[in-house]
Amino acid sequence: MKLKSLQLLHFTSTALLIVSVSYTVASSLHQQGVQWWVIFSISGPSLVLAFVMTSVYLYAIFKGASRRQEALEHPLTSSTQYLSFYDSAPFLGAFGGILGMAGVVNLNEYLLGISYAILSITFFVWMILDPTISFIEDLIPKNRKLRNARLQKKKAEKEQQQVAREALLESILAKIETNQQKWRDQLAEKPNKLIDIATQYEITDHTGACLAVDIGVEAWQIGGHNCMNYLIDLTKEECQKREISPLYTNHISYWWDGIGNWNTTLQQR
Question: Whole-model pTM above 0.85?
Fold first, then answer.
């Protein structure tokens, strides 16, 4: 219930601040002779107003999120009472502005004075008082100890994650190396056979295609797409040994199109 009340207070106070900023900027521009339709046009100073509104709101959200994450380190500024005071800053400014502008007859001056008070009090509380109190809390030995413990825990978690990633990578590489050694033994004669097929038959020849497909299917059954890729690599190595153009492997890739998830276009990119 308290959380919902604070959220409602935060939303309404932020809305009041946005209205104050908007009115202050718009009124100042109007006093300089700028027409109202220009102030609120899509491509005019309204973009500045939108930027200010968004920045203020995001700042308020960020402060609230970071405060919740470090509640133990900042027992005062994360308390419900302080958060209520923090979020009420625009309303406190409005109240002070109403008292200060009592007796002013001109409506524009009256509203402008209240807006200035809202901006001043909010700026003081959010930008000066709150960071100062938070800084003082950081200097308290107990809070510093909690902060150091949190940072050490976070650092240890990162190190554990890094070790886990490295271990996973090593296991994957070891598995790949083991598979490739096994495939090399099982496919020892296949590279030369594929080279002979590719050099003896045209790419459109049905007989050559059937012979190449038989070998491709066998490789697929042994280790899937990765095994087929490895066999192509072995065939390229064998082409270099026999001083044959490795472009002949494009014929093989073309013939294999459709085996499992083999795609000739993707393989040749």
Answer: no
